[in-house]
Amino acid sequence: RTALVWMRRDLRCDDHAALYHALRRFERVYCAFVFDTDILDALPRRSDRRVEFIHASVAALDEELRQLAARSGAPGGGLIVRHGPAVPTIVQLARSLGVQEVLTNRDYEPEAIARDQHAAQALQAAGIALSDYKDQVLLEHNEVLTQQGSPYSVFTPYKRAWLQKLDAFQLTPYPVQCYAHHLAAPPAGERLPTLADLGFSATNLGSLALPPGMQGAQQLLHDFAPRMAAYQEARDFPARKGVSYLSVHLRFGTVSIRQLAALAAGQAAQGCAGAQTWLSELAWRDFYFMILRHHPHVVTQSFRPAYDRVQWDDAPELWQAWCEARTGYPLVDAAMRQLLQTGYMHNRLRMVVASFLTKDLGIDWRRGERFFAQHLNDYDLAANNGGWQWAASTGCDAQPWFRIFNPITQSQKFDPEGKFIRRYLPELARVPDKHLHFPAAMKPLELQACGLRLGQDYPLPVVDHASARERTLMRFHFLSAGA
Ligand code: FAD
């Protein structure tokens, strides 16, 4: 009996649910990945760090699968890689390989759910079964429910229930290696497409500290593990190496969420506050997957319907200034440059720039959400939508609408010496620390002393925060009746 494992956002061969079940139940198991033209053709640029990251991770996975098979004495191993529309491509491949079943890991995004339903029907018509497994999350949308059996919409009680359910069984890795001798070799003549074959060109990915593939993930984890204890106090400062930078690996499944959670849970159980906080972040990840799965309307609408009555501004010039890191608020501009130059943005800064777009510039969160979707290496619909709706106050368990970040005090608090700002805004290098957070407040003599020409070397602020704040309070005021 023969099976095909269809890999998507799970580009690894250790602790892999669908691969484990396939190898345990079938004598011959093929593995495949499809570069889905429905997704690739919709990307705005032909040079995209994510495509390059996936491409490199797919090549690494091909090699890892060969080595895994070789270690178990099997002749097989390797990955079959195709380029085309996902469903017809996988159906055609399954038929040509003569498999009885296609196994895959579950996805929770509305479009992916529709794709998988379509695939199940098309495969069934060809006499082939499709089965799917939990792999991407620790606990699924229907595993953590209130006593009444409904989904949570507030994080703290959700996390309490989530932690109770997260037992040793949930954290046990799938021992793929025990059955690796069932791995089949790809048909003769298979070759991996190059990036150019896919119609894409290289980016600056190679110059970023973001090694792809399973080994890249383990490298970052190895670097983070000893820093986990300090996570709680270091994680809010973008100039410090306080976070794990593993999000892109979680996005493409080059690391197992169970491996990460087991590490954190082990240290948390010994009272390590940093590990407890990091584990909470993994709970947020599950929480937003759960919200998206139960409430798919959030993709285009506010979680709380009343908030869709908020009147946002069109403001094309302000929008352009935000996108191009020209707002005149250094922390916001440095954060946007980090995004544009690297595809990463620190979590504290994601909150600051999202708040700035919605509450200082009065622009609809959906526009910012789409911009992040185009630029973030770790872009993930569930977490991104959750983060934007949190900052815009339209989401579940969101920042209350009257709580408005001050971009200057956020800067003073979380980048006190301006190290992060100077890293991304070298034009402000000579501005003294105390003025770096808001150079527009400098007097002419102070500007002259550091050689900064405001409006030329660095923009004047596009809005005044105090008046923008008043406008936002007016914008949201109709909700004060308790919506
Ligand atoms: P760490 O601090 O090391 O956290 C470890 C992991 O926990 C992360 O990799 C991530 O998987 C998860 N995590 C941490 N914080 C959150 C959170 N608030 N919500 C959900 N999961 C979380 N995260 C994404 O993975 N993709 C996105 O597209 C995304 N967009 C965001 C947009 C906004 C406006 C905001 C405020 C947050 C967004 N986040 C997103 C959440 C968070 O900013 C990133 O997960 C984090 O910055 C990634 O860096 P890290 O891996 O070093 O995180």
UniProtKB/TrEMBL annotation:
A biological process from GO: photoreactive repair
Keyword terms, alphabetized: Chromophore, FAD, Flavoprotein, Lyase
Catalytic activity, reaction form: cyclobutadipyrimidine (in DNA) = 2 pyrimidine residues (in DNA)
Family from the record: Belongs to the DNA photolyase family.
Cofactor, how bound (note): Binds 1 FAD per subunit.
Site (Electron transfer via tryptophanyl radical): 312, 365, 388
GO molecular function: deoxyribodipyrimidine photo-lyase activity; DNA binding; FAD binding
EC number: 4.1.99.3
Cofactor or coenzyme needed: FAD; (6R)-5,10-methylene-5,6,7,8-tetrahydrofolate
Binding site for FAD: 231, 278, 281-288, 378-380
InterPro entries, sorted: Crypto/Photolyase_FAD-like_sf, Crypto/Photolyase_N_sf, Cryptochr/Photolyase_FAD-bd, Cryptochrome/DNA_photolyase_1, DNA_photolyase_1_CS_C, DNA_photolyase_N, Rossmann-like_a/b/a_fold
Protein name per the record: Deoxyribodipyrimidine photo-lyase
Entries under SUPFAM superfamilies matching the protein: Cryptochrome/photolyase FAD-binding domain, Cryptochrome/photolyase, N-terminal domain
Residue intervals of the Photolyase/cryptochrome alpha/beta domain: 1-138
